[in-house]
Design brief:
The chain has one domain: TIM Barrel (Alpha-Beta Barrel). It has 12 helices and 8 strands.
Length: 348
């Protein structure tokens, strides 16, 4: 075969191969659609405002103040029942939507595939936005609608596939999960066509879960730190002394010329987690935001690692299952929760 004929033959083969590969690729995992309306906030801001337990009357000015003060990430959930107020706070801030990252969550009663889209559309309408930046499965638990009974006919796989459809429909830019155990993540990995973007779970100096955090980094999944100030929130009661009065942290804060809260939040950021701080007070909102300039030496980080108490604060044991199997302090306690605690934990 002459050189010219050989070259022509190889050219034809290459073109055919390229065409076949292009066709095959078109049937592969769906790509996230481009959001022309959001050219500014591409990556999740590493510091955000939490809105759990923020009443409607205070959340509007809190969100407005936070956004005007530089925050660009708002963490929400439908079950917290304050999305409409959050939306009003966003509008009042006059900050452009394309500069704000909004995270929402799918509640347990909406896991059925036919309900997933309705749930996010409700949140989008409540928040008065056109889309969400991130939508998380709040818990790996499916309940029968309008009950707390486990829905044995709905699996996490069913729900995740419906979540992927939300990305394809342009209702959210990214999807992920919250409060998942390793076994739950493994189930998602086995069937996912769209990469989970983030996992929000409890991690703070008293429950560091460093190996779990490292696992997410290896898998290129962002870690969003829920309750980064540990038991500083009075909601957790006084069973343990507040971390804000911990001798180690008060000493370290003095060395950093910062408040204890700022020092703890800065540690959360330096370890590579996205920190969600919750406050409705203007002074604390500003104080928390200023934590972003604090840095730690390796020796200081080593000392912080020794402060881990494996203290889990968020564990709705009354649901009758071990949600955090395989994780530090993951075993469900046998003690029956008090009625007021049960009602409080409903909105985690």
């Amino acid at each position: 075969m002459s050189f010219v004929r050989a070259f022509s033959f190889l050219t034809v083969v290459s073109l055919v191969t390229y065409t076949l590969l292009s066709i095959a690729t078109s049937f592969g995992p769906a790509e996230m659609p481009e959001f022309d309306k959001n050219e500014t906030v591409r990556d999740i801001p590493t510091f955000g405002l939490g809105t759990w337990l923020a009443g409607k009357g205070v959340v509007v000015p809190a969100v407005e103040h936070a956004l005007k003060g530089g925050y660009r990430h708002i963490d929400t959930a439908l079950i917290w029942r304050n999305e409409e107020a959050i939306g009003k706070g966003i509008k009042a801030s006059s900050v452009s939507r394309d500069e704000i990252w909004v995270t929402g969550k799918l509640w347990n009663t909406d896991h059925r595939p036919e309900l997933v889209r309705k749930a996010i559309e409700t949140s989008i309408a409540n928040l008065d936005v056109e889309y969400l930046d991130l939508y998380l499965i709040h818990y790996p638990v499916a309940w029968v609608p309008e009950t707390r009974e486990v829905d044995n006919n709905t699996s996490l796989i069913d729900t995740w596939k419906a979540m992927e459809d939300l990305v394809r429909a342009g209702l959210t830019r990214h999807i992920g999960f919250s409060n998942f155990a390793p076994k739950d993540i493994k189930n998602i990995f086995q069937i996912a066509s769209i990469q989970p973007y983030a996992h929000e779970f409890e991690t703070h100096p008293y429950l560091q879960q460093q190996s779990f955090v490292d696992f997410h980094k290896k898998e290129n999944i962002k870690v969003i730190a829920a309750s980064p100030l540990a038991n500083a929130n009075p909601t957790y009661g006084d069973k343990y002394p507040s971390i804000l009065h911990d001798a180690f942290w008060t000493t370290l804060a003095e060395e950093k010329n910062a408040t204890v809260a700022q020092t703890i939040l800065a540690w959360g950021q330096q370890r590579g987690t996205i920190v969600i701080s919750k406050s409705t007070h203007a002074d604390y909102i500003a104080e928390n935001f200023c934590s972003q300039g604090i840095e730690f030496t390796k020796s200081e980080l080593d000392e912080v690692a020794k402060q881990d108490k494996k203290l889990r604060l968020l564990n709705p044991v009354h649901w009758g299952m071990d949600l955090f199997e395989g994780l530090d302090a993951g075993a469900a306690e046998k003690e029956e929760p008090k009625k007021e605690e049960e009602e409080r934990n409903l909105d985690l």
